[in-house]
Amino acid sequence: MNMYLICASWGHSLDNHPREVLSVWTYSNPVKIDFGPGRFSALASHLGGRAYGLVTYPDSFCTRLTEQLAAAAGPASVVINDVAANPDYVLLASQTRRIAQTGEPEVWVALGGGSVIDSAKVFAAANGEFSSVSQYLETGKGADALSATPIIAVPTTAGTGSEVTCWATVWNEAAGKKFSLARPNLYPELALIDPELMCGKPLELTTSTGLDALSHALESLWNVNANPVSANHAVFASREVLSVLPKLVKNLGDVELRSRMAQAAMFAGLAFSNTKTAIAHSLSYPITLNHNVPHGIACSFSLPIVIEAVRGSGGLCEDALRRIFDDDLEGAVKRMSEFLHNLDVSTLPADHGVSDAEWRGLVDGAFDGERGKNFIGSKERFLKAAEALGAAAA
């Protein structure tokens, strides 16, 4: 395919958008993906006889899967099954001490949602000593003390995309802080995605994780690190979530819908694996920490505001948003608001426990944060959009 055809596939020519088309960009993702219903049965062969540690949940569903895996590959050398929804310093330190007592496995199997996969990344980096991870998170120093035990990620929810990223969210709740453990050698060696493992997940979890995937996709678009490959992944993921999630919440056991959502979440992960997230996520962290709002809700209720704030920005972001919303950006804000409302998610900060007085401080903090600095828009446009949509007082 020649350069003109590549450009034309994005709906523009060299003459119309020379700066965008001729921009320099890179894209990389090393994770092997094994996708499809029933693929959990292939996990033992992927282990290849290696001694494995297992990170999972203690519920009956994961216990049954643990027993199946043990029958095929032998028992895990160490099992961590007390994972928290938001992996925190105190628990991670305790878990790491237990791992040190048994010895580091040759490979970690992360069987569960994003918190399980994130925890496995911490263990893979800690080499039996959580303080080396916390020092690195807080100072950026001590990278040479971190390890990189291989990881096989087996997600049981469709949302975080952690199975194809190299970072993990780590919380220090006592200090009211959230960190991101970002290391190129923490990409899982394999993402084994079996949609059958997601069937029957409860409504609230399905909604929250699905909205997390949508936010990942969109956040990778209004992002200073966006590129044509990440944008293509984001467009596909966003269109799928917008189409599938309203159907899935009414039929939680549908394998085809679960497959489509799992694939959408994976593509969203592939998109933001190269961009990281932006302003909606930056805004979400204190809301989750201080108001106990599930992450997927906290990072998605503001999406209509952000769409309004970037509308008219042009370039790769607007081109991709037009593809998602059928070339109707004026109607995109309304469509996104209705989509959220139909999932019983309010777009008003007050309904998530955030007062008008707190809102402005949260916005200021979000724009000053690392993820906020990835955003292509301005704080002024964001605040104006929020006011126009009735999300906060002037």
What does this structure look like?
The chain is an alpha/beta fold and 394 residues long. It folds into two domains: 32-198, Rossmann fold; 202-388, Up-down Bundle (Dehydroquinate synthase-like, alpha domain), CATH 1.20.1090. Helix content is 49%, strand content 10%. The protein is built from 17 helices and eight strands. The strands form two sheets. It has a six-stranded parallel beta sheet with strand order 1-8-5-4-2-3. A two-stranded antiparallel ribbon has the order 6-7. Helix 13 (303-310) packs across helix 17 (379-388). The N and C termini lie far apart (51 Å). The model is unreliable at 1-20 (pLDDT under 50).
User: Roughly how much helix do the residues carry, as a percent range?
Assistant: 40-55%
What gross morphology would you assign?
globular
Low-confidence parts lasting 5 or more residues at pLDDT below 50? 1-20
Which structural class should the secondary elements be placed in? alpha/beta
| Overall mean confidence score, pLDDT | 93
Task: Write down the Rg.
Answer: 21 Å
Succession of helices and strands:
HHEHEHEHEHHEEEEHHHHHHHHHH
What's the story with the biggest beta sheet?
A: 6 strands, parallel
Q: Count of DSSP E strands? A: 8
CATH class annotation of the largest domain:
Mainly Alpha
Query: Which strands sit side by side, in order, in the main sheet?
Result: 1-8-5-4-2-3
Instruction: Tell me the CATH architecture of the largest domain.
Output: Up-down Bundle
**Beta-strand level of the residues, as a percent range?**
5-15%
Q: How is the CATH topology of the largest domain named?
A: Dehydroquinate synthase-like, alpha domain
What is the terminal-to-terminal distance?
51 Å
Q: What is the name of the CATH superfamily of the largest domain?
A: Dehydroquinate synthase-like - alpha domain
The total of helices stands at 17
Overall number of domains: 2
